[in-house]
Every structure is written in structure tokens, then in C-alpha cells.
Amino acid sequence: MNVIEVSGLTYRYGQFVAVAGVDFTVRQGEIFALLGTNGAGKTTTLEIIEGFRKPAAGRVRVFGLDPYADRPALSARTGVMSQQTGLIGELTALETLNLWAGLTSRKDSAQALLSTVELSHRANVPVDKLSGGERRRLDFALAIWGRPPLVILDEPTTGLDPESRQELWETVEHLRETGTSVLLTTHYLEEAQALADHVAIMHESRIQVAGTLSQVLSEQPARITAKVPDVELPKLLGEVSLDNGQLTVQTRDMQADLYELLLWADRNAIRLHDLNATQASLQEIFLAIGKA
């Protein structure tokens, strides 16, 4: 089942085309990472999906509804964590959640959610006395209040320390396991690589790369590196370079080339120091798109 369907989406600010013919779908129970270079159009795309803007062209459906025309109906089924917090500084963390309980039809426990986001010990602290990372965790609690079937997270871990980031990742993964769909934007590419089932990368108003995480990563060659002695190397499928004993192999068949390299080393009693075999990363793909 598709929770979000975006087809031919276009949006303009005057003569400037911010989003140009964007297509993607988010399925039930998956984490979809929408990534993009600065000014790529991903924030505008999110605002359209959330119902804050009307497309200039194309079609957007969330649970089969038009988010702009049917925004009130969708709000009960969608949790949103925006980049900019809308928290009231004078209210405590607990009061903030209790206020939200009166504004939404979804039911939940304020105390339980504070525990989930590791804020139980700060329940009675005013929001303006919380750290930036604590406010982000409170924002996250509001987004997942009542476990809506769709959660939109816009740069959710900005300002969080590594431990808090890991805890939020685990909560997001639990949401997926229980059937929630998550649309995620992040500047932390390792975050997208750790969490996402599907990835789309925007650049200059368009989606340049999209697919499952494995499909996207396979677009770039893997890399094998090692220190080797000055002897004749085996024939490998990938592109081989050797610089002062440092071997680098750029390959699209890492298993085959790594097997041949290890077999060659074993036959010749050679020890491969600092051997490393790594798949391409989202960061490499992202940087390549930005330079194109």
C-alpha cells in the first residue's frame, strides 16, 4: 500500500521553479529518506506533502487524499517534526505534551512518551530552560504522539549528541516495525544509510537518483584497498591503481575481485596489510551529484 504518492510535482516561486516534475512513493511501513543539496527543493516538497502549499502542477496524494484540500482530515493521521520548533517557552515538557493531548484526537501517555525520548527527569522543566537537543527530543515526542500511521521528520537529529541520535534511530526503527511509514530528511548521510529502505536525492529541483538503498549504493563502484609488495598483481575486473605499494581497486563486483586478490595473496604467501573492502557510501553519491 502506498501512503504517499507524488507524480509530476512542480512548484514555482514566481518565475523560479523550485520543484520540477518530481515523482516518488512512500509505502506503508517503510522509512523513505528524501535527501538533497542546498536549494534542491526538498523543503518545498515536504511543505506540499504536509498541505501547506498547493502544487503548480502534478499530483500529490497522502492516504489517497489531497493534502492541500484535505489537510484537516490528514492531520489526525500524520505526525510532523519540523526544523523550526513551535514550542512555548513558559510551559514545562510535561505541560507541553498535555496541551498537545487536548489539541489532537490521537491518544497517548505524556509520561510514557517522556520516557521514550529520555526526558522523564526534565518533565517539570520549562521549555526555555531545556537544551537545544532536549527541545528536539520534545519535538520528536509531539510528532509520534498517538503513533500516527505516517511520521514526517525534517532534520530530526540536528543538535543531538551521538547517544541521543542513536536512541532516536532506535525509536524510528521501532515505528517502522509496527507499521508506521516515515518520511525523513537529513543532512547526516550516515543516518539515511543506517535507517532508510528507499532513498531519493534531489538536486536542482529534480530527483537525480532514487531507489532502494542497495540500488542507489550500487550506482557507484565499491573500493578495495591494501598494502602490497612490489610484485606482479593478479588480473582483476575493476580499475586498479598502485601508488608506493598502496593498492586501490574500484570495482562493481567486489566479491569477485576480493576473491581473486585473496587467492593471489595465498598462492604467493603474501600478507595484505591494511586490507579494506567497502561498498560505496551515500556521501560519495551525494557529492558526485552535487558536482555534476
From TrEMBL:
<dbReference type="InterPro" id="IPR050763">
    <property type="entry name" value="ABC_transporter_ATP-binding"/>
</dbReference>
<dbReference type="InterPro" id="IPR017871">
    <property type="entry name" value="ABC_transporter-like_CS"/>
</dbReference>
<keyword id="KW-0046">Antibiotic resistance</keyword>
<dbReference type="Pfam" id="PF00005">
    <property type="entry name" value="ABC_tran"/>
</dbReference>
<dbReference type="GO" id="GO:0005886">
    <property type="term" value="C:plasma membrane"/>
</dbReference>
<dbReference type="InterPro" id="IPR027417">
    <property type="entry name" value="P-loop_NTPase"/>
</dbReference>
<dbReference type="GO" id="GO:0016887">
    <property type="term" value="F:ATP hydrolysis activity"/>
</dbReference>
<dbReference type="InterPro" id="IPR003593">
    <property type="entry name" value="AAA+_ATPase"/>
</dbReference>
<feature type="domain" description="ABC transporter">
    <location>
        <begin position="4"/>
        <end position="229"/>
    </location>
</feature>
<protein>
    <submittedName>
        <fullName>ABC transporter ATP-binding protein</fullName>
    </submittedName>
</protein>
<keyword id="KW-0547">Nucleotide-binding</keyword>
<keyword id="KW-0067">ATP-binding</keyword>
<dbReference type="InterPro" id="IPR003439">
    <property type="entry name" value="ABC_transporter-like_ATP-bd"/>
</dbReference>
<dbReference type="GO" id="GO:0046677">
    <property type="term" value="P:response to antibiotic"/>
</dbReference>
<keyword id="KW-0813">Transport</keyword>
<dbReference type="GO" id="GO:0005524">
    <property type="term" value="F:ATP binding"/>
</dbReference>
